[in-house]
Amino acid sequence: MIRNRDAFPETAPHATALACVEAGIEAAHPERVVRAALRFDGEALAVGDERYDRSAYSSVLVLGGGNAAAHVAVTVEDVLGDALDGGVVVTDDPQPTDAVDVLPADHPIPSERGVESTSELLERARAVDEGTLVVAVITGGGSACMVAPAAGISLDDVQATTDALLDSGADIHEINAVRKHLSAIKGGRLARALAPARVSALVLSDVVGDDLDVVASGPLVADTTTYEDALDVVERYDLSVPESVGERLAAGARGETEETPGPDDPAFERVSTHLVGTNMTALAAARDVATDRGYETLVLSSRIRGEARDAALAHAAVAEEVVETGNPIEPPAVVLSGGETTVTVAGEGRGGPNQEFALAAALDLPSAAGLAAVDTDGIDGNTDAAGALVDGDTVTDRGVAEQALDANDANAYLAERDALLETGPTGTNVNDLRVLVVEPSE
């Protein structure tokens, strides 16, 4: 999986960090988690604890989108075989399928081809009836892949707003509150399009806390946010958004535009959701690998968030404490964390939250420690790297490293030191994974 494994030193911290990263990502792959949740005996389809008699439905379709959507579709096809009648998924990571149409999109900035693909997805959704069983696919990255601008909103408007949100330091809950109110598919609107079909959704979460209304901007669940919430995000972060966006949010806040579907909306009466993969899926697998290698392990949290640099400093402090006092665990130790940090972009460099995290941590890591920080989808920020693997010797020129951070140009600094970690698209997306390996001090 790790394409540039040979670039890293063959030391225990580096080898262990790489093994943990691979295990975590592989454990969250749809082929594993979807197959574990889906069973078909030729007569009935079991999704989690629910059972659907195939004979009760005139057709079974797969519909949805996100980074891992095609990989999910491949597994559903394999499980259902001839009992599956087709479907559509929209993704930036296409895979060959037999019955399901895989349509192109882009991530993290939505694109024209994503609009065209989502239009076809909505057309197929609106064509179903109460005799249709829809196995819905909702994965991380769905907010960008499934793009259907609301009336009066252009793709350019969506792109500009997305850029502003991603650069602002806003968290995913805030970002998606805005996205939902500029869309004809997000915030429960796909559920409306699918009614009255029976819908059973398979969800891979890339959201801290696994809030279903936030994963892919919640196209199949009731929206807990309002136009007023979305407008508050724009104002709080002083975002420069297109005039049409500001006017739509303001009109919605005044009650002049219909709100997104809430919990009492009948569209959700025949929709069920099944969370099949989360950040804890990856963390648990990484922990098992570390334990097997003889390390004491600690899962610090699956909900690390906030500015990447601040969270990185806290992790470096944990490494120092482990080395100096044996708290919270004795070395050799592996401390794991997940979640999603953010970056308030002030410079014009290249990088992503995980690269900023790794470089900021490297400023203060003790020599006995190594740290890998990756986005489990294999794409960190505006680069082709998944993240980085650093140690106490990565930074030898603190001033230059700090300048790179100030310019949001961690990618260039880490590339020069062969510290970037490259996987390519991984087929999954369950948020960020960080592996801190601390050996006993010499």
TrEMBL record:
Residues 245-266 are annotated as: Disordered. Residues 17-249 form the MOFRL-associated domain. Signal peptide: none annotated. InterPro entries: GK-like_C_sf (IPR037035), GK_N_sf (IPR038614), MOFRL (IPR007835), MOFRL_assoc_dom (IPR025286), MOFRL_protein (IPR039760). Gene3D superfamilies: Glycerate kinase, MOFRL-like N-terminal domain, MOFRL domain. Residues 334-432 form the MOFRL domain. This is DUF4147 domain-containing protein. It comes from Haloarcula saliterrae. The lineage of its organism: Archaea, Methanobacteriati, Methanobacteriota, Stenosarchaea group, Halobacteria.
